[in-house]
Amino acid sequence: MARWQTEHVIGLLRSRTGAAAEPLVVSTEADRRLDLSISQLGGKGAFAREVQAAVLDGRADIAVHSAKDLPSITIPGLVLAAVPERGDPRDALVGSTLADLPGGAEVATGSLRRRAELWRRRPDLRMVELRGNMQTRLAKAAQHDAIVVAATALDRLGLAHQIAERLPVEVMVPQVAQAALGVECREGDDDLRTTLVRIEHQPTRRRVDAERAFLAELGGDCSLPANAHAVIDGDDLVLTAFLGAPDARTTVRATASGGGPEVGAALASDLRDRLGAG
User: Fold this and answer.
1) 185 is a catalytic site residue
2) Residue 268's closest CA among 210, 217, 224, 225?
3) What percent of the chain has pLDDT over 70?
């Protein structure tokens, strides 16, 4: 998936700016240590830190990330220079639709927020851990009644036929910035920043900024199950968000609208208060 994303950004640079680029592959600890959960590896930045280090120390000029893997506060020395057009942000079930899962079915996912959302609809489900690249996850699907993955990952890898159901936002709010790419460069590299702006998709950037503002208000790399998804309605952003307790069983959800990223911060504050009151 990381290679697809990198080649996609290289293709955008070539077609829109004429700039040539070549990939530098960085193997992260999160890719290697499949025996550990993401929280054990240090949370949201687990897939990003070593890629960011390659840019900071000059081995690379650009870092390409799944934007959902980026902490909501950009690290010193780097800037989020471009967010290209987003894919399908929804989550997907492989193996069964939600309605067809039998009582007490076993569902595999490594995401606490996915567990919280599914338990909200189906408290009977048994949740088990799932890690690995997409091929590894799909190979394990037959061991469970269903697995949960990002729909866009299967779309981009030509595996959309494996999807049993794309879960609507009303059922499962996507992860912050899911299906978007985040392209970082060094903060002082003004010429490169000017180039990267040309591969940005402004509507996607606007949506992603509001979702990241939601997460930032919760503490940057919130360990709670927290999701947010923004759409554009005329001049407004409409943000739907979800927040759960650490056990993923107590949850709150709401929708709010506004003109900019501040709608994300305001909604996070509201849900945090409501969860605390509950």
Assistant:
1) no
2) 217
3) 92
